[in-house]
Amino acid sequence: MSGSILRLDDVHTDIGQYRVLHGVTLDVPEGGVYVLLGRNGAGKTTTLRTIMGLWRARAGAIVFRHRDITALHTADIARLGIAYVPENMGIFGGLTVEENMRLASATSRFDRTRLGRIQDLFPAIRQFWDKPAWSLSGGQKQMLAISRAIIEPRDLILIDEPTKGLAPSIIRAMIEAFREIARDTTILLVEQNFLFASSLGQGVSVIDDGRIVHDGDMAALAADEALQTRLLSLSMAAHQ
Amino acid sequence: MTAPSIETRDLTIRFGGHAAVNGVSCAFRPGELTVIVGPNGAGKTTWFNLVSGQLTPTEGRILKDGVDITRLSPSARAKAGIGRAFQLTNLFPRLSVLENVRLAVQARHGIGPRAFRPARAYRDIAALARAHLETTRLAALADLPAAALPHGDQRKLEVALLLAMEPDVFMFDEPTAGMSVDEAPVILDLIAGIKKDGRKTILLVEHKMDVVRALADRIVVLHNGELVADGAPDRVMALPIVREIYLGLPPEDEAA
Amino acid sequence: MTDTAAERDLPSTAACARPTAGGVALFSVIAVIGLLLLFAPFVFSDVRSTQVAARICVFVVLAASYDLLIGYTGIVSFAHTMFFGMGAYGAAMGLKFGGADWGHLLLGSVGGVLAAAVLAVLIGLLSLRVKALFFAMVTLAAGSVMMVLASQLTSLTGGEDGLVYSTPRLFKPAMKLVTNADGEAARLFGVPLDGRLALYYFVFIVCLVVFVLLARIVRSPLGTVLEAIRENELRAEAIGYRVVAYRTAVFVIAAVAAAVAGVVWAVWLRYTGPDTTLSFDIMIDILLMVVIGGMGTMYGAIIGVVVMSLAQSYLKDLMSAAAGATSGVPILPHLLDPDRWPLWLGLLFILLVLFFPAGIAGTLMKKGSRS
Amino acid sequence: MRLSDKIAPSFERIGGVYALPVILMIVALPLVGSLSSWVTLTVAGLAMGMMIFLMASGLSLVFGLMNVLNFGHSAFISFGAFIAASVLTGLSAWVGAHSLGFNLLALFAAIGAASLFGLVAGIVFEYLIIRPVAGDHLRQILITMGALIVSEELVRAIWGDNPITVARPAALNGIFVIGGASIEIYRVFAFCLGLAVFVGLYLVLNRTRIGLLIRAGVENREMVEALGFRIERLFVGVFMLGSALAAMGGAMWAGYQGTITGSLGSEMLILITIVVIIGGLGSIEGSLLGALLVGLLGNYVAFLFPKLSLASNMLLMMAVLLWRPWGLKPAVKS
User: Is A109 helix (H, G, I), strand (E, B) or coil?
Assistant: First the structure.
């Protein structure tokens, strides 16, 4: 671990008249998977969207690699090397899989070896290469969304609940893929599914009611059932 | 055995070449609570949309109490007794909580020839609406605009609308999605209460296995738009094919 | 979450249910306007003012019925003057080609109003099932074709010149409602009880009745359904309301109200032409009145009409004065020419939409609700 | 649908809705009777259609990309026409010269000036009128309607209330005769220009990275930004392009009509509205289809039943709406 790649310092975000984040402070170390856990409505998605500049922080600062990105435009934040996989995956259904991937590559040309690796990771990307993206299944769309995020080398990938609504079999495949991806990039993973999160993450923060209520080591949290119950009053049996 | 209240025969819908629901035939009887499960993209919500009329099938038929309703509009199906709560909260945001429910009561009971009287004058309808708010524990919020409610209460209001429609067939699409642990039981108790009545048919799309175990009389498993299993919970969950696709034991072609 | 975020900033009709200080002020103003209109012939002795009062009555109906569409149901139509014109031309043709009696006035009026209703059903069923934008475009096209037809079918409509006709005897200025000892029209508070007075009260009462009916509709359960359709069309359908049928119905109701206003206007003016009924300028006036008053507030229509009617005469005078004063400056006098009145109207309109989307009534009703 | 089930496959085989203008042309031939009149009418209809396409394409494109219905669009047509007329008057020496080069130069100067105006005014318009009401259709309809009124009054304030005569370059003024059918050169020129613009637009949308971005932006603006693109700049560009095309169409129309009045904008608004409804909102293919149908039908009907010509567009629109409520070729949105 080589210090922090992303730091949120007392970030407050409002959506319309609703105050959603009340001071989120977060320190994501470089490398590996860092998990932001919390039940639905706790402010996880809002945190990611605020980092991406899709919603504006009312107060506080977001620092990426020593650079304050709080007021930057979404597109400029993306160009600093941050990829975002939203909860709804953000697939362009009317475009082909190839066109979806092409948009995400900086020059419209593909790095062949990189693409090959992605296609090995997610065979569906190769299989449906020239098909319109709307014809993919939910799981396949999720894979396309992740492929799109890693077609260029990125420093940080923000992923919002990739397991939502997916069958356990697909989730298991995804764990493998994420381990592979995390070798050369940092992943900030937002999750509600503790089993999935605990099998991937090294560091973890728990958010509730728009505030971080716990920071620490994933292994410690996984071992401490009382802490889990206190922090995450959610149905852990969801995907058993 | 009672006659089925809702039935689909060879129900199919294709988007382009892709069959989202493919030849699904099944029937549901009053007093029965069926949970529909399946991995994401299995066609659960699409099947719901076909039954409640938001989508029109490419092939196949839908019958309500033996009458073909395949070509009816969503509003006509609502009038025929099919009620649906939506997965994503789907309310009238700028109308008050009470008005939201009153609309559903009014749709059910009609306003007859009195259309020109002020809405306040319909005490019977307002009283019914308030009763539904009591049941869903929203009465204190009756005058707030629906948009101002927290997420959990919006989900409850969604269910209150469904109750107010007084349907024969209740369709819930992940009713507790996004609710906190202390809120969800209110909804689950309500569903259990409807079931106790014994005359209603209840269809439930749900992911949470604890909910499935607690409520289901029967489980229908959809996979890739097709019905792959149907039966009593214990039996269905023990079927190899279900373990395979739903629990993902052999890692065969996941993506397809 | 994201979808409703924008809606949350909008004023809530539910929140407006309790009276606010602004609301009280608003209703006092409306009460004063109502009284002034009721006693207009006695308060304003000159013909010109009575003319303004009658115009206000007619346009209140037009604006209120238009608000039923745009404000309550969220339907944008540019065909409102078309229906207004159909009522007017119906009455005009009845009186012109049939004769200046009640029977032919009724025949023509009913014909015009029915034609408007039928056309509204057709347009509604044809295009209300698709997007709001689309409907706006279809009505724009329909309205303009109707205007072309009116100016082309010269034998029926008098073309650009329009139709001039007489009204039933009751409304003729020479008619004496009550005669005094000298055989002249008796006077009440100095106002002769003649046909003119009868005509004004004909206009006032018909408009009042239509307005009250419209106001009752928005307060009835039907009104809530219309708002529900505006808020969330799919859900309204899902709980059992046939959205297309309701939309079509409200479009027909608005069309009939506009056509009735047209009948009244035709009788009052004793003249019907494209410029008095069908023109796009009138459509813009109606739009402006509703936006000024506040969309989705039936009483806002009254405020909007009054403000517009006063501004229209006042601003034109101001403009010609300003044009004279700036005659030395290059383009400015051209912009200030009284004929360029729509330019400033358009600017006002843009500014209102930008900064006061809730209009006068909407803004007032919110005032004091926070404190 | 049930009735047409049998015809549908063969209709799709001959090209589907794209065959409609051709079918219309074929049907019109026996009705018109004389081949030479038919050729003249057809050329006129195609030319008119292409000019209308120029004007309508921007309206449709802007809607498709930004979901903005800009009733103020026809203001650009009106300004384009009047600016072109002024330029042609200013360059009367070139316009009148017996040299094709100078003639064309004058015409291109006029079209260029109009288009340039469209580009520049497009930015201003987008910033002042469109941007503040983004995402709110009701206010969009209202505010753009207001903008149309204002701009039309500005045209009247600048160029006066009386009609203006447009000088048409001498070389394009002529007629050539093929087999008894007389064809105006200007119409051929208008057709070719419109066709070139259509082909260009089509290629940009389907073959370039910008086109890919535009198509992606139509679907999900936010995601395009999260991939690192400043989409509002792209959209401003598209708006400017649409406005410039409208001004270009207006300039061509001025030359075609010979006389223009201050109400040109609102007159054309009705026409392009009908075209966009017939074609289906959001697709340039649809705009082209709609424009050609309106142009052809307008000319045939004006010849066959002069009294009906004004209503023909409306009848066409009603017929199309009954058949396909979303128009012939609407943009596909996910």
Answer: coil
Crossing angle for the helix pair D264-279 and C132-152, to the nearest 10 degrees: 130
Tell me, yes or no, if A88 comes closer than 8 A to chain C by beta carbon.
Answer: no
The three-state DSSP-derived secondary structure of B128-175 is HHHHHHHHCCCHHHCCCEHHHCCHHHHHHHHHHHHHHCCCCEEEEECC
Chain A nearest-CA residue for B251: A169
Please state the rounded mean pLDDT for residues B19-26. Answer: 88
Query: What is the rounded average pLDDT for all residues in chain D?
Result: 87
Are A17 and C6 an interchain contact pair (Cβ–Cβ within 8 Å)? no
Per-residue pLDDT tens digits for C214-242 = 998 888 888 889 989 888 888 999 988 98
- Third-level CATH fold of D17-323: ABC transporter involved in vitamin B12 uptake, BtuC (1.10.3470)
Q: Write down the H helix ranges in C294-358.
A: 298-325, 332-336, 341-355
Query: Do B180 and B213 reside in the same domain of the chain?
Result: yes
Cα–Cα distance, D302 to D291 (Å, whole number):
16
Last residue of a domain, one of B108, B137, B166: B166
Q: Which residues are CB-contacts of B197 (< 8 A; sequence separation ≥ 6)?
A: none
Burial of D150 (0-12, 13-18, 19+ CB in 10 A): buried
Task: Map out the domains of chain C as residue ranges.
Answer: 34-279
Give tens-digit pLDDT for A23-33.
999 999 998 99
pTM above 0.95, yes or no: no
The residue type of A194 is F
Pair A35, A222: CB distance under 8 Å: no
Percentage of residues of chain D with pLDDT beyond 90 = 36
> In this structure, are strands B201-205 and B169-173 parallel, antiparallel, or unpaired?
parallel
**Residues of D at the A interface, defined by Cβ within 8 angstroms:** 209, 212-213, 215-216, 218-220, 222-231, 332-334
In DSSP terms, which residues pair with B15 in a beta bridge? Answer: B18
Position C249 confidence tier, pLDDT thresholds 50, 70, 90? very high
Phi, psi of D258 (to 5 degrees): 85, -35
**D87 shares contact with chain C (CB less than 8 Å):** no
Residues of D in contact with C349 (CB under 8 A): 142-143, 145-146, 149
Whether B249 sits inside 8 A of A167 (CB atoms) is: no
Are the C-beta atoms of residues B31 and B37 closer than 8 Å to each other?
no
Helix (H, G, I), strand (E, B) or coil at A32: strand
**Residue B106 shares a structural domain with residue B63:** no
C6 touches chain D (CB under 8 A): yes
Residue range C191-195: mean pLDDT, rounded: 78
Same domain? For B67 and B27 the reply is: yes
The distance of A142 to chain B (nearest Cα, Å) reads: 10
**Pick from A144, A171, A177, A187: which is nearest to A238 by CA?**
A171
Residue ranges of B 28-47 with Cβ closer than 8 A to chain C: none
- Whether residue A41 and residue B178 make contact (CB cut-off 8 A), yes or no, is yes
**B193 and B144 share a domain?**
no
Q: How far is Cα A16 from Cα C7, in angstroms, rounded to an integer?
A: 9
Interface confidence (ipTM) of the complex: 0.74
Closest-CA residue to B19 (of B46, B49, B37): B46
Task: Examine the fold and report which residue of B166, B185, B213 is the final residue of a domain before the chain moves on.
Answer: B166
Give residue limits of the domains in chain D: 17-323
Determine the pLDDT at residue D33. Answer: 84
Neighbours, chain C (3 or more CB pairs < 8 A):
A, B, D
Q: Taking CB atoms and an 8 Å limit, are A134 and B249 in contact across chains?
A: no
Indicate whether B19 belongs to any domain. Answer: yes
